[in-house]
Amino acid sequence: MTTVAAYAAPAAKAPLERTTIERREVGEHDVLIDIRFAGICHSDIHQAREGWGDAIFPMVPGHEIAGVVSEVGPGVTAFRVGDRVGVGCMVDSCRECENCRAGREQYCTGGGMVGTYNALGKDGEPTYGGYSQKIVVDENYVVRIPDGLPLDVAAPLLCAGITTYSPLKRWGAGPGKKVAVLGMGGLGHMGVKIAHALGAEVTVLSQSLRKKDDGLKLGADHYRATSDPKTFEELRGSFDLILSTVSAPLDFDAYLSLLRTEGTLANVGAPEEPVSLNLFSVLGGGKTLAGSMIGGIAETQEMLDFCAEHGIGAEIELIDAAGINEAYERVLNSDVRYRFVIDTATI
């Protein structure tokens, strides 16, 4: 076992504090990664504060991890010492179910994927995430970060990037398609960049026009305020796809009205509260209300290669580890443009 410094929540809703954790020895197919940067995802806050249900404490959050390989197990073939790599939201799965074999490990039905943190590994031990100096991960759940992507702006791609890329690709965002991105935050700003790079006509739907200049700069063709009733009147029946990145309950009936016939509203935001829906909102027009959760390992690598090809990284604010608790509060107040990233050298 190796002892490394980390930041952990000792209990639900408690401030994160510096501590130490144990990492397992490097096994046959393991990769030891010196973590350089770790993104702060809203999911980290949901879990550290038990917004999504009971959690495992102490908790070391972080599933947007970018670093450099410092050791490999004797059976590792995909990576070498010195490689630039990333780890996202999962570090294992059953590997045998239909979904795992099809590259959809995030939907593993053989016991479920093993989360990078707030989960139990196959050894029965809790997993600890990226707010730490090092991590040991099976090579099958590690991805390569292309040389064209700086590690700090690449880190958020391991969640925010793949979370938006996967549904945009799945529901055909591209030339000739009108795509709306609902919410202009950590996920939403990546959705705008990726949808634009895929060739779609992109509209941002945000509560206000406060971030309009940013949205247009990042690739949006249009930017509309959802607080203005005229938005719903004028855009009725406009979109092939709406990507909702919002983690609060929505008036789904209103947003479904913005879809064209047989359009899709795909949700990647995960509110803590239940939502309601009038089914006539999907029956009329044959519309689809869908969900999507991250992406498989192969698709995550595809996303990273796509982002490198198109010069896409996250818009970040780099912080020291001592600022994590303040960053959490600022995320909740929508006071970040657009992703906090921890410089893990400061842990």
UniProtKB/TrEMBL annotation:
Its EC number is 1.1.1.2. Residues 14-342 form the Enoyl reductase (ER) domain. It is an enzyme of class 1 (oxidoreductase). The keyword Oxidoreductase applies. Gene3D superfamilies: Medium-chain alcohol dehydrogenases, catalytic domain (3.90.180.10), NAD(P)-binding Rossmann-like Domain (3.40.50.720). Its cofactor is Zn(2+). It catalyses: a primary alcohol + NADP(+) = an aldehyde + NADPH + H(+). InterPro entries: ADH-like_C (IPR013149), ADH-like_N (IPR013154), ADH_Zn_CS (IPR002328), CAD-like (IPR047109), ER (IPR020843), GroES-like_sf (IPR011032), NAD(P)-bd_dom_sf (IPR036291). SUPFAM superfamilies: GroES-like, NAD(P)-binding Rossmann-fold domains. The keyword Plastid does not apply. Belongs to the zinc-containing alcohol dehydrogenase family. This is alcohol dehydrogenase (NADP(+)).
